[in-house]
Every structure is written in C-alpha cells, then in structure tokens.
Amino acid sequence: MKRLFWYVLIGLILCGLVLSGCGPKTTKVRIATDATWPPFESVNEQTKEIEGFDIDLMTAIAERADLEIEFMNVAWDPLLAGIAQCQYDAAISAMTITEERQKQFLFSDPYFFAGQIVTVRIDNTEITSKYDLSGKVVGAQIGTTGSFEVEKIGGATLKTYDDIGLAYQDLMNKQIDAIIADNPMALGYVGENPDKLKIVGEVFTDENYGIAVCKTKADLVAKINAGLKAVKEEGLIEQLVEKWLSSQ
Fold it and tell me: Is the pTM of this model over 0.90?
C-alpha cells in the first residue's frame, strides 16, 4: 500500500507539472515607437530605456485593458510600413490621424491635440511665420505631417531627416533655415536651446494623435479604446501633460 501511495503521489505531481506547462500563454502585444520624438518618446541616455508621454500613456492603457505589451524602437518609415503589413500589433509615436493613414491601418480614439509650427535660429529676423519660407531650406522628419506641409509651400526646399534631432542640429549649425514640426516637440527643443532657437508664428494645422493598430485587429482597438477611456476619466492625460510638457 505504501508503494502504491507513492506511485499515486508521484503521478499526481507529474500530472500537475504537465498541466501547468500546457496552460494558456499570454501573447505580448508588440507596440512600435520611433523613439526620436521627445517629449513623447525618446531613449534615456542614462538608463537606455524608452521613455516619454506616449510610453507612460500606453503603459497605463495596457494596465487598464489587461494587455501585456512590449515596446519596439523602430525608425519612422519602417514603423508605418510595419503597421500597414501587421509586422507590429500597434504603434504609438505622436502619430497624427490622417485620411491616408486610415486607409492603411486602424486608429484608436484621439488622445492629444497638436499642430505644426515653425522653428528658426534665435538671430533670424527674416522668417516670422510659414509665409516667409519661400526660397528657404526647411527641415522636417521624413513621412510626417511636417514634411507634407513644407511640400505645400511654393518655393520652399524640403530637407528630410530620419531623426528630427538631426534637423535641429542642422538648424543650429546654419545648414538649413527653418524646421516645421509638431508644436509640443518643437517647444521641447526650443526649451533645451533657448539661446539658439525660437518659435515663430502660430500653430497652423489642427491635428489629433492616435494609436495606430494593424487592420486585422479590431478587437485590439476596442481594448485600447477602453483603456484610453479609463485613463482619461482618471485625469491621467492632464498628469502626463504636467509631467512631460509643463516646462514647455
């Protein structure tokens, strides 16, 4: 009887191990982001971790929606192509909701209002708004609404960058005349370089940021929207504005 007892006990233990190994596994949701767009997403030089407004927001949304997420740092053009081809599940990267993009992938509800604005060197007195950019070399990140706006300005020469930070370096080094970019990010660079850069004119577009999602994942959009609704109701958006944008 003793031997039988041990056989049964060992059998039960083995069974438990097998069953626990065969249980349902949580699939991580792959979230792409182009971490070259502070204060929304950038790589912390000390920790080497991705941080910013969007990262905090998406993390909070995932917690409310019971999603396990993994951030992936991807350059802007491959990010857009990757979402369109469903190489990634979703993307949060200060992305404006546009009709053209809506043809390629799904979007969450809007979470932030922004617009395009012009940045020039502090000593520039010729450029006071976008209407003074004809005949000038204007920088913008490739594939962004900023680059599309430059293309609309007759006589302006567009110079594109994979990393918007390189555009600001060129501007300060007198390699280009101006930059058109999203106002929160532009204000961030001006705030870091107040002796070298300034904003001119007013915000001249109305844009809303949204979270892009692979077109086959409507269920994921619903979960993200539910999580976004929850964080909005908790006042988290205002807290993130205070944390990441208040100094600007």
Answer: no
